[in-house]
Amino acid sequence: MTKHRLTPALSAPRVASALLGACVVLATGSVGSAALADSHTALNPPADAKVSTVSQNRPASTPLEIAAERLPKVSAAQVLDLASKQIGVRENSQGGGTKFHSWYMSTPRAQETVARDGGSVQDYANAPWCAMFVSWVGEMAGIRPTMGWDAYTVTHAKWFKNNQHWGTTPTPGAIVYFDWAGSKDLDGIDHVGFVKKDNGDGTITTIEGNTGNGNVEQRVRPTSQVVGYGYPVYAD
Question: pLDDT tens across 14-36, in order?
Answer without folding.
Answer: 333 344 334 533 333 332 223 23
